[in-house]
Amino acid sequence: MPLAYSLPSNLSPATVTNTSSLLRIISLALISGAAIASRLFAVINFESIIHEFDPWFNYRATRVLAEKGFYAFWNWFDHTAWYPLGRVVGGTIYPGLMATSGVIYNVLHALNLPVDIRNICVLLAPGFSALTAWSTYMFTKEMKDESAGLLAAAFIGIAPGYISRSVAGSYDNEAIAIFLLMFTFYSWIKALKTGSAFFGTLTALFYFYMVAAWGGYAFITNMIPLHALTLILMGRFSSRLYVAYSSWYAIGTLASMQVPFVGFQPVRTSEHMAALGVFGLLQIVAFAELVRAHVSSKQFQSILFGSVIGIGLLGALAFGGLTYKGWIAPWTGRFYSLWDTGYAKKYIPIIASVSEHQPTAWPSFFMDLQFLIFLFPAGVVLCFRELRDEHVFVIIYAVVASYFAGVMVRLMLTLTPVVCVAAAVAFSSLLDTYIDPVEPEASDAAASPAEGTSAAGAAAAASDAGSSKKAKKAAAPDPGVASGILAAVAPSGSGPKSRGIFGLDTRGLVVFNALGMLLFFVLHCTYVTSSAYSSPSVVLASTNPDGSQHIIDDFREAYYWLRQNTPEDAVVMSWWDYGYQIAGMADRPTLVDNNTWNNTHIATVGKAMSSSEEVAYPILRKHDVDYVLVIFGGLIGYSGDDINKFLWMVRIAQGVWPEEIQEPNYFTPKGEYRIDDAAPATMKNSLMYKMSYYRFAELFGGNQAVDRVRGQQVPKTGPTLDYLDEAFTSENWIVRIYQVKKEDPLGRDLKAANAFANGKKRKKSKPLSRRRAVA
Amino acid sequence: MRFLRTLLFPLLALTSFALARSSTGDSVLVLLDPSLKKENYSIFFGDLEKKGYKLTFRSPKDTTPEIIKDDVAQFAHVVVFAPETKTFAADVTPQSLVSLLSKNMNLLLALSPKQTPLTSLASEFSLILPPPGTPLISHFPKRDTPATLIPVQPPRAHHVISDNLAPVWFSGVPQSLGHNPMLIPLLNAPPQAFASDADSDSGADALVEAAEKSGEGLWAGSSLSLVTGFQTLSNARATWVGGVEMFSDEYINKEISKGVKSGNRDFARDVTAWTFQESNVLRIDSVEHNLVNETLPGETYTINDQVTFTAFISKYDPEIGWWRAYSDIDDMQLEFTMLDPHIRTSLPPVEGEPGMYAVTFRVPDRHGVFKFNVDYKRKGWTYLTSTSMVPVVPPQHDGYPRFLSAAWPYYAGAFSTSAAFILFVALWLAGDDRELKKNKGAKAE
Question: Which of A70, A73, A79, A619 to mutate to test the interface with B (most CBs of B within 10 A)?
């Protein structure tokens, strides 16, 4: 066979194998290093701090776990959250993340490494991203080969779609969940391939870990049954499938029921019924196989026909009946909102109000995945070409995850791994084809006068050449297969003899182009990671005119003010977004927080915020609120403030009190949302408006006050407050804290008391008439 | 702790015997208008000094001595006998008088039919005064004094005013009371009395007009109050007196009928005793809560626990100038509240334990942050409020009953399946299956 370039021929196969495995290990180590390093922008640019909102709760919970031990954590009743309802933390969280950190913490301390629990929490996500890269490698290796695996590992290591949830400090369930997801899938594929109960059990164990770690475990709960069902429908039922699925389902379900938060859900809710149904179906199919082995095929046909219909009907009836009787919980709202994107907005505004539950915008696909999103379909098509059992899995995963990623921004996270895998398969096929030195035996081609080397030698050479190019690919075990695939993908219509690439220039062009794509991918990922995904959002950064960085630290300033200046049991009311942060940083009881389990309680806060002071005051007193905290970005143009979220408060409150709160009242007659002079009276009288703009106009010293977020002019005479006192306003006015006044000692309403204190004359009152005069 | 109290009690009582009778302090500032001669009120002030109060006199227009210096109150009580003063010094504006109350100083204020800054202050206390220049008038009973000087019978069976006082002489302005529950009428007008212009009848038309407009809104009848007490939420006391003359030597010495002295002196004593927090002063010494049969207070309770709540209440005894355990409240209630009271039960005194009130109840089957609320508000008495917060938690993970009888079928199922499986494996492994294997192999081929 002619070769495009010469290969060394004096290498023994053992050397080649050893070198390639060494190179694989080195590459994986480098990939892990890159994955960790690219997540450290947040620590370097800011500091080692917990990010955003949810991580603050996880961090607080982890501290309890590290300080008081696992049992105290399990029984922890957090009486400062959801005041005065409290929260049974042990039974309402996925403890996997905290338990992982706790184990790491205890191991390090047992080794006399006194690492702060905060640093463990901050660096957990980058650490696990390295493991994710490794498990993606293992998974992709099952799909194609090691070189595709290394590519996939490199992709997942730096793909912004995954980095967005796993930078240092982003201490959230997703940080470890993606690793668990990929490893569960890998062991499932392995179990399915080998039919091994061991790998089935391993799948179940990692499934259990996943259930303990993230609510998204339902994705696995439905993916694996869907895969199994598809295989059955494709006529690919085998004892391997039976063993793998049964061992996973039986052990995994029992194990998952040990998580207190999950409890009996696996047998009681609709989301888990698919797995149970497929489990039952598998038993029936296996039984049918057994029967088929013993009866003639004609009898079997009729038995099968009758029983399939009968069992199907029975199963559906049983499911419907159980749902009707309430034994199986119907689908939850979050589930419906996956199918009908308008559902949440109509019925459960609390879910729709979360920004990460919004539908994904198109550009974010490119932003999060760059060129992988273009290679992704090619990879899926390549899976169709081969269509082994595991390829079916990737295809299903790709379809399902693409849909979900389109519905919710947040689920971009589950799409990223499969995109990386499919793109790696496609990309490695491309490289395999174009680096393969074997040229077709064409009569007119200027074949290089190379001696005929053995196939193994060629492969070794390919691996050498590949690894010298940035160590991204290892040995291609059977280049013939890869080129065969590619040839099949692009049918040329010619005979098998003319398949392949001619000359070095064509190869060079394509490979150079491909490497260019990789290079730009790296640049893109680095840029996006450093600019978009590494902001802690607790600390904000802006740029001074001279280019230096200016840190806006209002949140922590305000939270520490609360911590230092208020009594320990002072209840702070804020919109739920800030609940976890107040609990974590200010250590004060809050009314509502990011664990949005009680819609009514949140609506109560929404009502207090959107009503007038007179209406809100009794609510505040009833809930023992001492301080009210609002976020106001109008001064420095921080757009994520409470006035911009205000309509959600109104909507959520309206859901519970439709007579008292009506959304249209907060718009001008033209339907505009305004805060200037034209704002409607309801808006201007609302507590939120008053607290946001209280004394704002004074700041401008008689000039026209301008809200920089809304770009509107604020009325010169600002709102007045009778029932609240301004207690604290942070440097850039982002956080404003108000103290709720106590009842007037003379029993007047506070408005009258305030008017009196300001020296206003009261209207002369007449004695109370006790009955009507007789005319 | 209670032993300590009983030990300390007589000791402290001895040391404090020489001090004033009031529970809050003995310094009194008297803002006396120069037009009212101090000599004319010598009996009233003399009685106060005899009780142990240190009186400081000052004209309302003076600026020294300051009432509040460096944000610290310099006096425990302030008497404002300036019914006709139109301009006050800067520290006795209506606003600052209210702020005195929030600093727990007690006020005794005198009104007159004239319009003064105090008139507008009265409306902040839900007192509704008649128009200026309309004092209380009564033509009954027939007597030789002017119609504006009226003998008024003090109330009977009133827990602030002693029983069986002789009628008191009153002249001044009546007050109609608003809906404020903190008001305590100490002296009501006689049923035949009304407010009207005393000098001419021209003002009467205005009153009648006002009456016609607003129904029976006339300043008339026994619902009018002449001396009104007011206790703020922070338990400071303010008393509004319709006419300052009722404390004067003249009225005190004036006979009601032949040989019967007026009750003014005793009435003034009772009013000042209440205003200066000598009488009807209660306090909650401490509250405790614990599980039944335990003594240490619980930090948290589990749902359905049996919990005992105990409060110790004492009353101020002006005779000894110290607090005595007080067990005579029989209508106090305890609420166990989370947003709404989940339990509302009476908190009765414990027999044989002076000052101790206790109740035992079952914590509701609901977790959350609960509050033990005592909220005892009775007219004329110090408000007793106490709030202590306690989280009620669900049972610990190992706090639930185990080995339920209802679960026996499941235990039986689990163990029998395990046993059957082991048996099956044993049989499978022990059994000679070489032949079987051969058959199987043949079949597979």
Answer: A79
